[in-house]
Design a protein that fits this description.
By secondary structure, the chain is α+β, with helices and mostly antiparallel strands. Helix content is about 30%, strand content about 30%. Bound molecules: coenzyme A (COA).
Amino acid sequence: MKPILLEIPERFETERLLISNYEEGDGNEFYQLIRSNYDYLREEISEIHTLEEIEDAEEYVRLRRVAWLSRERFVPKIVHRARGRMIGQLWIEPKWDRMIFEIGYFIEEKSQGNGYVTEAVKRMIQFLFTGLDASKLEIHTKASNSRSIGIALRCGFAKEAQLRERGRTSAGEAVDLQIYGLLRREFLQWS
Ligand SMILES: CC(C)(COP(=O)(O)OP(=O)(O)OC[C@H]1O[C@@H](n2cnc3c(N)ncnc32)[C@H](O)[C@@H]1OP(=O)(O)O)[C@@H](O)C(=O)NCCC(=O)NCCS
């Protein structure tokens, strides 16, 4: 299987959201999004520390765009369709040899609590199993991140592991991680 030959759309729509590959010029909007949510995101989204200028953000979105095209990973922006602006991001990391995909996410603080991320993740789950024949999906999260765990559970993932003191806070404190998994056969049973 040659991932580069796979037909993979660059845009997905849900009732409220557009989930799509970054485009050149998105750096400014992405920069505003992360800067205005810096304190809220910095513990979980380590790469935002490196985005000091708009130029860094433009480089970031262009590199993510290229990574999508080369099938290295898929990092779509989440756009609120009615508001016409970016509210978050997904991160999908493939392990092509086993067709396992790890999913990550963030959403701006003021848009939390509306089910947007669950909606986006469910759309990508559907694509990964039906469009890409994924065998398994995983979500890795700090054990203390109850909102992240809530997304995994709402999307039908089962808790598979607690990795003791495997993660680090930004202050260097060791914390437990958890892994949640969704198997292809579970998805097929429920859909
Ligand atoms: C983790 C994170 C993405 C969770 O965001 P979230 O808004 O809680 O998740 P969702 O968008 O799926 O919304 C779910 C919430 O909306 C509520 N909700 C409202 N309408 C809903 C709907 N139509 N469908 C589903 N949930 C809905 C749910 O009840 C839930 O609220 P609750 O947790 O108080 O019960 C967010 O906290 C975040 O970006 N944190 C910083 C980055 C981070 O931690 N990323 C994860 C690293 S592993």
